[in-house]
Amino acid sequence: MTPVELSRTVLHAVRRAVDEGELAVAVVPERVVVAPPGPGGCGDYATNVALQLARPAGQPAPAVAELLRTRLLRTDGISDVVVTGPGFLNISLAGGADARLVRDILRAGRRYGHSDALAGQTIELHAAPEVRALVLMDAVARVLRAQGARPQLHCTRPPEDAWVRVLGVPEDIHVRPGRDALRPVPAPVDPTPLGRDAARWALLHPAPHDRPRIGDEHLVQRESNPLFRVRYAHARSRAVVRNAADLGFGPEPGPVNASALHQALADHPRVLAATAAHRAPDRLARHLVAVADALAPLLPSVLPLGDEKPSAAHRARLALAEAAGTVLAGGLTLLGIDAPAHL
C-alpha cells in the first residue's frame, strides 16, 4: 500500500463513519495527509485527521481516533493502528507491503505515481519570457498531465528557436499578455551549450527562487554531479536486469532489507502530486537523487557472486532494483530528460 493509497483508505474510513452517523461533520476533508511518524509515534505512517475532525464533530480527538482505528483495523493491508499523543493515528502496514509496492511499480511501469486526481481540470500556466521560466513551465505541464490535468501554456512572446530545438521547449505556447505566475530566478547565461539533458537539469534541479548554476559541472561523469548519479543508477538497474537474464533468472518481489529505498519509492506518488500542486519540478529532481542514492548500496548484491546460485533473495533484490530504475526513468521523462539504458 503506497502513501497515496493509505491516504485514500483513511479518507474512506472517515466518509463511512460520517455516512453511518458515527461522525457528525458538515464537511468531509478532501484529502488526508499521511507521513512517517514523528517523535513519540510508531508504525509506518501517521495522520492527524482525528485532530482535524474533533472540533467539527464535537468529540474529543482521542475518541475520534479510536473510532477510526476500529474501522482501519478491518482494512486489508493494515496490521495495526495505535493512537498516540492527543489523537494521532499511527498505522502499521501488513507484512509483504514492500513486495506489493514493488509489484505495483513493475505493473505500472513508468506511469507509477500517475493519477487522475486532476482529471477534467484545465490549468493555465503563464511563464515569463525567459528560458528558465519556459523550461520550468514545460516540466510542470508534464507532471500536471501525469495527474490527469489539461495544462494550457502561455507566454508574452514565442520561445526562441534554440530553446525549442535544443531544450525541448514546446512550440505550441499561446502568445498572449498575462501575469507571469512562473517567474523563477533567471539563468545567468545561455544554457543551450550544455545540451538538452544537462541544461534542463541545471535549470530544474534548483528551487525556483535559487540562482541556477550553468556550467560544465552538469556534464562531468562523477558522483559530485547529481544528474550523473541519477542516470548512472538507472543504467546500472537496467544492466543488472540484462545480466540476470543471461544467468537465467528474473525478478520476483520479496523481502529485502532496504527500508530507505522502499520509503523513497513509496513516496514517489506523493512527490508527483506535490510537484504538480506547487509548480515545483525541483521537488521531483531532488527526489530522484534520493532514490538513486538509496539504490546504490543495493546494486552490488543483486547478482550472484562466483559459483553462487541465484536464490529467492537475488530475485527479490533484482525486482527492487528494477522497480527503482523504473521510477528513475519515469521521473526523468517527466522532467524532459533522457534516461539511457547504457551510460
TrEMBL record:
Keyword match Cytoplasm: no
Catalysed reactions listed for this entry: tRNA(Arg) + L-arginine + ATP = L-arginyl-tRNA(Arg) + AMP + diphosphate
SMART domains noted in UniProt: Arg_tRNA_synt_N, DALR_1
Residue ranges of every copy of the DALR anticodon binding domain listed in the record: 230-343
Pfam families cross-referenced by the UniProt entry: Arg_tRNA_synt_N, DALR_1
Entries under InterPro entries matching the protein: Arg-tRNA-ligase, Arg-tRNA-synth_N, Arg-tRNA-synth_N_sf, DALR_anticod-bd, tRNAsynth_Ia_anticodon-bd
Annotated keywords: ATP-binding, Ligase, Nucleotide-binding
The protein's Enzyme Commission number: 6.1.1.19
Entry keyword annotation includes Magnesium: no
Coiled coil regions in record: none
Domain Arginyl tRNA synthetase N-terminal residues, every copy: 4-93
Full protein name: arginine--tRNA ligase
Species this protein is from: Streptomyces althioticus
